[in-house]
Amino acid sequence: MANNSLIIGGSSGIGAALVASLVEHGHRVTHLSREPEKGPDVVAARGVRWDALSEPFPRDCLPERLDGLVYCPGSIRLKPFARLREQELRDDFELNLMGAVRALQASHEALKRSDQASVVLFSTVAVGTGMPFHASVAAAKGAVEGLMRSLAAEWAPAIRVNVIAPTITDTPLASRLLSTEDKQQAAAERHPLKRIGSAKELAEVARWLLTDASLVTGQVVRVDAGLSSLRML
């Protein structure tokens, strides 16, 4: 029986790479985004419009049984704390946390009908590693990590819930920070592995958590080229 997977934010970046990978491995995939027509052109994937900031969750897109849900939307708002406006903080919480909350609440019953349900959310290396100018996104993604731990406990043993915490990744979201070769090299040099990740690499970690990681729940999986844990002396 093919797995039913729901990918929110599946039209670009990590989400799009994950949609393509899941379809390649035999999943039936529905992906939600503001512009689903820009998502991967694969027969076994259905695109549905949803703006997580302003629209009710489209419950009619859910299959009766949902085996996997991944919430990919994120933001990179780098700004001195003194210049952050309250509305900017609210916007980051709305996209990163509340969008995930709406998707999870709407999908819970369908997830419970699976005998192997898994949820994957996205955080950032900036939550566990203090970085200047990251206050807004680190606060929002820190809330996502707290949500993950609570749900992993509440929904066990039926549904596994985990978070991926990447460093900067070569995706459209980070294009402003990686727009030149010099910027790409500088970003790579900040990491012990001297490189940055790709959307496909992050997607494969998400697919592993969805499918094969049957003993993993309540975890923050750090995919950050060693940035959060290694100090090269």
Explained architecture:
The protein has one domain: 3-Layer(aba) Sandwich (Rossmann fold). α1 packs across α6 (199-211) and α2 packs parallel to α4 (135-155). The mean pLDDT is 94. The strands form 2 sheets. Strands 3-2-1-4-5-6-9 form a 7-stranded parallel beta sheet, with helices on both faces. A two-stranded parallel sheet has the order 7-8. The relative contact order is 0.15. The protein has helices at residues 13-24, 86-112, 125-128, 135-155, 181-189, 199-211; strands at 4-8, 28-33, 45-49, 68-71, 117-122, 159-166, 169-170, 197-198, 220-223. It is 37% helix and 18% strand. β1 (4-8), α1 and β2 form a beta-alpha-beta unit. It is globular, with a radius of gyration of 17 Å. It is built from 6 helices and 9 strands. The longest helix is centred in the middle third of the chain and has 27 residues, at 86-112. It is of the alpha/beta class and 233 residues long. The protein starts with a strand and ends in a 10-residue tail after the last strand. Residues 3-171 form the Ketoreductase domain. Belongs to the short-chain dehydrogenases/reductases (SDR) family.
